[in-house]
Write a structure and sequence with these properties.
6% strand; 2 strands; 4 helices; mainly alpha; two-stranded antiparallel sheet
């Protein structure tokens, strides 16, 4: 499995120190980015990393955005959004159930990839946000 960002990348992207366990969060975020990149065409090296520096940077930033989003939601596995109401400690969030299932991808991550030309046909659902 390819992990597209490091703890240092995350800290630079968020301008905050990377939290404990960020490696696992970035690995999960990389899986979500791989889902978005299905059908994208770009050259890779032997480690399956993009060879074009701009594409590599965009994928790294999208991974950091996905990780930051999942941490902000308090849901690194993407499961809490499947429920109507979620409570984590003293925080209670009212969510929405949809027939299409829970959102799995950070809007910022998809936009970063779209602007970089890696998701030319991606449609954004702005009603979800």
């Amino acid at each position: 499995m390819v992990v597209y960002a490091t703890a240092d990348d995350y800290a630079a992207y968020t301008d905050k120190p990377a939290p404990d366990g960020i490696g696992a969060v970035l690995a999960r975020a990389s899986e979500r980015i791989d889902e978005l990149l299905i059908g994208a065409v770009y050259d890779t090296d032997e480690q399956e990393m993009p060879t074009d520096p701009k594409e590599r940077e965009a994928i790294m930033r999208a991974t950091c955005a996905q990780a930051a989003w999942s941490l902000a939601l308090g849901d690194p596995y993407g499961v809490a959004s499947a429920f109507r109401d979620v409570q984590i400690g003293s925080v209670r969030l009212g969510g929405r159930n949809t027939e299409s299932g829970p959102p799995r991808h950070a809007p910022d991550a998809a936009r970063i990839l779209h602007v970089a030309g890696l998701l030319p046909g991606y449609a954004f659902d702005s009603t979800a946000w």
